[in-house]
Amino acid sequence: MAKLWRKLNELYGWLVIIFFGFIMLIGIWQCFDNYYIYKHTLDNSVTEYKPRRDSSDEAVYQKSPITDEMVGWLTVDNTNIDYPVMQGQNNSQFLNTDPFGNYSLTGSIFLDSRCSSDFSDDYSVIYGHHMDYGKMFGALDDFLSENYLKSHSTGTLMVGRNGEKTYSLRIFASMRVSAREKTVFDMDNSSIRSFIRDNASVLTEESSSRILALSTCADAESVTRIVVFCYIE
């Protein structure tokens, strides 16, 4: 009987070791996975290929490895948002493809495929993944604070692969909204202004200027989106 108990205790000990070892392996894998995603997130080194102008205000053209699907460049002042804007044939193309055409879990910042590539529509939407440390569109949730929005309300939209046109952006509103909300995500611009007025978490002003929406996931497990609205000046 004593031998049986010893064997059972040994078995129990091994089961405990295996269980906690398995838990530790899961933790190590999660740390590695987070590190891998962080290291492979599109960072601000991409600004090397940002369109620029010389002293005569002429566009400086350069050979860029960014694919021909680039339709512009988005900058929000005093944030990490300073990225090329891509546009695919559908809204899945750049979810896991970087601006250089490579597979990437963090994808690209991209314009809704139904919008005009020159941003001439009254209402346009740009999407981006919500990444840690404010990368990609991870900075958008800060705009749910009125004080933050007011102190980070400017930006620039360069339109065209070589920045043929440049517009100032004025951020004026933010909200949490369901990804199923048709007014925001089905390009129903006929009622977008009244929808913002009635549902915004922060609203600082109203104007008749064209509207650009920046959208990202609130978290990985929900259909809630954080949307920041800008006027295209």
Quickly describe the structure.
By secondary structure, the chain is α+β, with helices and mostly antiparallel strands.
What does this protein structure show overall?
The chain has one domain: Beta Barrel (Sortase, Chain: A), CATH 2.40.260.10. With 233 residues, it is α+β, with helices and mostly antiparallel strands. The termini are far apart. It contains four helices and eleven strands; from the N terminus they run αββββββαββααβββ.
Q: How far from one another are the termini?
A: 86 Å
**What integer is the average pLDDT?**
84
CATH 4th-level superfamily: Sortase
Order of helices and strands: HEEEEEEHEEHHEEE
Low-confidence stretches: 26-40
For the record, the CATH class is Mainly Beta
Shape: globular
Tell me the radius of gyration.
23 Å
Task: Summarize the biggest pleated sheet.
Answer: 8 strands, mixed, barrel
User: Count of helices?
Assistant: 4
Q: Per CATH, which architecture? A: Beta Barrel
Q: How many strands?
A: 11
Q: Which strand order do you get reading across the main beta sheet?
A: 3-4-5-6-10-11-8-7
Tell me the count of domains.
1
What is the structural class? alpha+beta
Task: Describe how the helices and strands are arranged.
Elements: H1 2-39, E1 52-53, E2 59-60, E3 70-76, E4 82-86, E5 109-111, E6 123-127, H2 146-151, E7 154-159, E8 165-178, H3 182-185, H4 192-199, E9 202-203, E10 210-217, E11 224-232
Parallel strand pairs: 4-5, 6-10
Antiparallel strand pairs: 1-2, 3-4, 3-7, 5-6, 7-8, 8-9, 8-11, 10-11
